[in-house]
Design goal:
single chain, 143 residues, mainly alpha, 5 helices, elongated, membrane, transmembrane
């Protein structure tokens, strides 16, 4: 069986920046789970449950993005990557919100929030591209 021609394009091979971002965030999350203090705001504002949930969200997101990168090109890989990017985006969004709440606004954390927002927007955009491509493949026409 020949692979679907819609799946051989830069969209299915442009995973490296997202994999790198997810990998770095997963290392930070793992350090957090192992006891390193990675964010006072996260620990102070959310407590232990949010700390653990945030870490697990980033680690699971990375796991899915990584799994998608080692799979052969196809719909399954795109579905896994989309799910992983959504989890990474949720984790990064939680961190941004906690940071804003923790410092009482944007004044003390504007650069970190801007970098966090850039990561979220990038991951959400990639997830949306994957979603549109999956619809295209399923329905047989360009969106």
């Amino acid at each position: 069986m020949r692979p679907d021609p819609h799946l051989r394009d830069p969209l299915t091979t442009g995973r490296v920046p997202y994999l790198a971002t997810a990998t770095l965030l997963a290392f930070v999350a793992l350090a957090n789970l192992l006891g390193a203090e990675v964010s006072r705001a996260l620990t102070r504002e959310g407590g232990q449950p949010l700390d653990v949930a945030w870490s697990l969200c980033l680690i699971l997101g990375w796991t899915l993005v990584f799994a998608s990168s080692v799979m052969p090109p196809g719909m399954s890989g795109m579905i896994l990557e989309r799910a992983g990017l959504i989890l990474v985006s949720v984790g990064a969004t939680v961190y941004g919100v906690v940071l804003i709440v923790g410092v009482g606004g944007l004044d003390g954390a504007l650069m970190l929030v801007a970098l966090d927002a850039a990561a979220v927007i990038s991951c959400v955009h990639r997830a949306w591209e994957l979603h549109r491509r999956l619809r295209w493949v399923r329905h047989g026409s360009r969106p």
